[in-house]
């Protein structure tokens, strides 16, 4: 008997990726298109339809039981809508309804991209075997998701665990979200670079002011570059410790482009965590890099679809997660 498949979509500001994924997390078919992020909403949807068209045209499609979507946010899973910050043509866009129509009425599960990454890391990655975990994406922004009691905890709208907009500095800089002193305002790649430049770091002859360039300078010993990463690590540590204190996670998994800085980020982060995670029940909290890489969005969207099927009695996600 063939194992059922799910379709997965990973929707971001630069690329729309799709895949057919089996119950062990193996990707059997892929498709992708560039995201026409500056176009109107229907044009963006046509790119999604083109990806789905490639998936539906193959002989495997007949075994697909559900569709999972991990999308840049904000998302509202309760309404089935998405409003990605970097796709202005989609504001309250009825993505679930549109995908359901294209796929012949299959069940559709929608989660934010941070929650999708969390699902992937819990199923196939560094959080596997942990019943209570925080997984984070530290990149252009800072997002995240939670696993509580052994299950993905997306929350009513699919945004639970959005650690990037926890305030960790009451008098900090205003954040575009409307808050002040948010983790993202200090720890995202662009803000690491911004802080370095504001404090006197000078880029090399190529003029590169990215976080990766700051990381290179920090490895070479530039004190301002080092300090910018240490400040980012401190903000992450404060947010992680607050989360651990609130819901008793025992592992924090960090992925995204900034995590590629490696020890530049993780060494000061673990050191700072000792100053914030001080209560007895959070002292054993571990921090580790993510391992699912660029496929995290697709694998996580598939896990969300399998979890939705489990809730409807079609498949047991625990048996799927266990391999």
TrEMBL record:
The domain of life for this entry's organism is: Bacteria
Database matches in Pfam families: ROK
Q: Which family does it belong to?
A: Belongs to the ROK (NagC/XylR) family.
Can you say what this protein is called? ROK family protein
- Organism, by scientific name, is Streptomyces huasconensis
């Amino acid at each position: 008997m063939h194992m059922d498949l799910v379709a997965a979509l990973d929707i971001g500001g630069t690329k729309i990726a799709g895949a057919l994924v089996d119950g062990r997390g193996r990707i059997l078919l892929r498709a992708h298109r560039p995201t026409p992020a500056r176009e109107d909403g229907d044009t963006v949807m046509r790119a999604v339809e083109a990806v789905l068209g490639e998936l539906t045209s193959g002989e495997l499609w007949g075994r697909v039981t559900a569709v999972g979507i991990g999308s840049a946010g904000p998302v509202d899973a309760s309404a089935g809508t998405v409003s990605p910050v970097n796709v202005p043509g989609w504001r309250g866009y009825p993505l679930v309804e549109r995908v359901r129509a294209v796929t012949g009425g299959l069940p559709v599960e929608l989660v934010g991209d941070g929650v999708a990454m969390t699902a992937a890391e819990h199923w196939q990655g560094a959080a596997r075997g942990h019943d209570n975990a925080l997984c984070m994406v530290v990149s252009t922004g800072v997002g995240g998701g939670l696993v509580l009691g052994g299950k993905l905890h997306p929350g009513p709208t699919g945004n639970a665990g959005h650690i990037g907009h926890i305030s960790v500095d009451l008098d900090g800089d205003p954040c575009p979200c409307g808050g002040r002193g948010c983790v993202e305002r200090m720890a995202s790649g662009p803000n690491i670079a911004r802080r370095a430049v504001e404090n006197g770091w000078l880029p090399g002859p190529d003029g590169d002011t990215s976080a990766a360039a700051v990381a290179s300078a920090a490895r070479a010993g530039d004190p301002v570059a080092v300090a910018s990463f240490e400040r980012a690590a401190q903000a992450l540590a404060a947010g992680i410790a607050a989360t651990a204190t609130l819901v008793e996670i025992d592992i924090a998994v960090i992925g995204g482009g900034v995590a590629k800085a490696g020890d530049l980020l993780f060494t000061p982060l673990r050191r700072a965590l000792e100053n914030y995670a001080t209560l007895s029940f959070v002292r054993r909290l571990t921090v580790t890099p993510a391992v699912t890489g660029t496929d995290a969005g697709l694998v996580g969207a598939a896990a969300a679809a399998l979890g939705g099927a489990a809730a409807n009695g079609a498949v047991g996600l625990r048996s799927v997660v266990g391999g």
